[in-house]
Design goal:
Strand order of the largest sheet: 4-11-8-9-6
Structural class: alpha+beta
Order of helices and strands: HEEEEEEEHEEEEHEEHEH
Radius of gyration: 25 Å
Largest sheet: 5 strands, mixed
Shape: globular
Distance between the termini: 18 Å
Strand content: 15-25%
């Protein structure tokens, strides 16, 4: 009878918690969709809803502001890629020199990396660091992850490091590149996207003037930060709910909480 009471109580209480968790997961999903829709709208249509428009003649873009231009990336910015020393030589790794891999990208500013290099690894392979402030863009496996280098650091060969140019604001590129560059991907026989350095260079960007790029970046920095804070707070509250669920189960099944008489709303 006591086991049955425990079962009924936990079914009842965990169902309530699970419902709250699912609602928060749905909210996060909607916020992420809203974030991406906002970025797509602003970096392809601009901030002025009444601006004259023209046909971009690019299928994924549709109409763009009349005074914006479309150009291949190589005409607006340059980038470099890193390298991976031989994994068979342990002395090339693990001595504290930051070395970014795809899994490190995502935070707006990247300082600490999960893996590091040694001075010997850097020297033997003639590796050149991406400068502080560079925009790091992943173009293999997980395509389109971006971060700003918060200090000089090295990268592997799957990351393109863009430096600021007179024609492309990297703050604008932070939002534009993950949208535009993957459109130049090819597909392998398994249905996975493929991108190389040539594909990046040929990717078509839609660009306003440099001043308008900065205005767009200012707007998106503000709006996406607001959304990111909502996502962060929702994730935090969801974590608390999951911890409460685990604690509740532990207390009940170990007898620390007597649930007899607490089933069916008697609590």
């Amino acid at each position: 009878e006591e086991m049955r009471a425990i079962e009924l109580y936990l079914d009842q209480e965990t169902s309530k918690i699970d419902l709250l968790i699912s609602k928060k997961e749905l909210l996060i999903e909607k916020l992420l969709e809203r974030r991406q829709a906002l970025i797509t709208q602003v970096v392809t249509k601009g901030l002025d809803p009444y601006a004259p428009m023209k046909d971009s003649r690019v299928e994924w873009l549709g109409e763009i502001p009349e005074n914006w231009t479309i150009a291949p990336l190589w005409t607006k910015a340059t980038f470099s890629t890193g390298w991976t020393p031989s994994s068979s030589n342990e002395s090339y790794f693990g001595q504290g020199i930051p070395w970014a891999n795809i899994s490190d990208l995502g935070p707006r500013f990247l300082r600490e990396t999960s893996k590091t290099l040694s001075e010997l690894g850097v020297k033997d392979y003639g590796m050149v660091p991406a400068k502080k402030g560079s925009l790091l863009f992943s173009f293999k496996l997980s395509i389109g992850s971006v971060s700003f280098a918060d200090e000089d650091l090295y990268t592997n060969e799957a990351i393109a490091a863009f430096e600021e140019s007179e024609k492309l604001s990297l703050r604008f590129g932070f939002y534009m590149l993950p949208l535009a560059v993957p459109e130049n991907c090819s597909w392998n026989i398994y249905g996975a996207r493929m991108l190389n350095e040539t594909g990046i260079k040929q990717a078509r960007l839609v660009l306003p003037s440099i001043n308008e790029q900065e205005d767009v970046a200012d707007f998106l920095d503000e709006k996406t930060t607001q959304i990111d804070k909502l996502i962060e707070s929702t994730s935090a509250s969801m974590k608390i709910l999951k911890e409460r669920r685990e604690t509740l189960i532990a207390q009940v099944v170990t007898g620390k909480l007597d649930v007899r008489g607490l089933v069916n709303g008697d609590s």
